[in-house]
């Protein structure tokens, strides 16, 4: 669209005033389009289902450990019991951390959609990752194409300037050697003959 093209052009104009523009060290400043596409394919519900599955597996593992501990002799119990208690404790802690991180990420995402004024599609109760990131994927793809073109143009301009500078230095450095006027006896005798 026209607005998108204007934004891309304005961004490139501002960005390429930087000193590393047109150089190989110049890096695309936004997330790569394929990363945004991958983000658009994810769903918070899938992550929540996966956490639910992990909780269920952890409960099953805990029950299995308790079962093994209850039927084992006290003399064979100890290395297994301590290691499994540590493992289960660590797994529970990591699961709680993941759950907390998922909740805060979801909250931050909703705040981000409000900041960018993205509305949920009809039939959706909230903005999906697909809705949000598909717009940014398209923008990032277009911007990266524009960015590459601008970078090439600046690179060519810098190359021309360097070639012109080299040519000017070469012209200043080149001088013509005039043959020496001989003024010795040989020259005077040679003129008389």
From TrEMBL:
* Matches recorded under InterPro entries: FH2_Formin, FH2_Formin_sf, Formin_Cappuccino_subfam
Which Gene Ontology terms describe the biological processes this protein takes part in?
actin nucleation
Q: Which residues form a coiled coil?
A: 44-101
A GO MF annotation of the entry reads: microtubule binding
SUPFAM superfamilies in alphabetical order? Formin homology 2 domain (FH2 domain)
Keywords (A to Z) from UniProt: Coiled coil
One Pfam entry name = FH2
Residues covered by the FH2 domain: 1-169
Q: Look up keyword Coiled coil and say if it applies.
A: yes
Please identify the protein, giving its name as recorded.
FH2 domain-containing protein
Task: State the species of origin.
Answer: Periophthalmus magnuspinnatus
């Amino acid at each position: 669209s026209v607005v998108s093209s204007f934004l891309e052009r304005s961004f490139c104009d501002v960005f390429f005033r930087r000193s590393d523009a047109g150089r190989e060290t110049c890096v695309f400043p936004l997330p790569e389009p394929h990363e945004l596409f991958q983000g658009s394919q994810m769903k918070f519900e899938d992550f929540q289902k996966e956490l639910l599955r992990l909780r269920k597996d952890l409960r099953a593992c805990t029950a299995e450990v308790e079962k093994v501990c209850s039927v084992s002799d006290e003399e064979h119990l100890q290395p297994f019991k301590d290691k499994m208690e540590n493992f289960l404790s660590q797994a529970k802690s990591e699961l709680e951390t993941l759950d907390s991180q998922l909740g805060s990420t979801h909250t931050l995402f909703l705040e981000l959609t409000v900041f960018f004024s993205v509305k949920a599609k009809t039939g959706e109760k909230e903005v999906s990752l697909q809705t949000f990131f598909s717009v940014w994927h398209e923008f990032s793809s277009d911007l990266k194409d524009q960015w590459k073109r601008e970078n090439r143009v600046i690179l060519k301009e810098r190359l021309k300037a360097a070639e012109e500078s080299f040519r000017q230095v070469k012209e200043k450095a080149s001088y013509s050697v005039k043959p020496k006027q001989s003024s010795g006896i040989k020259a005077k005798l040679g003129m008389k003959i």
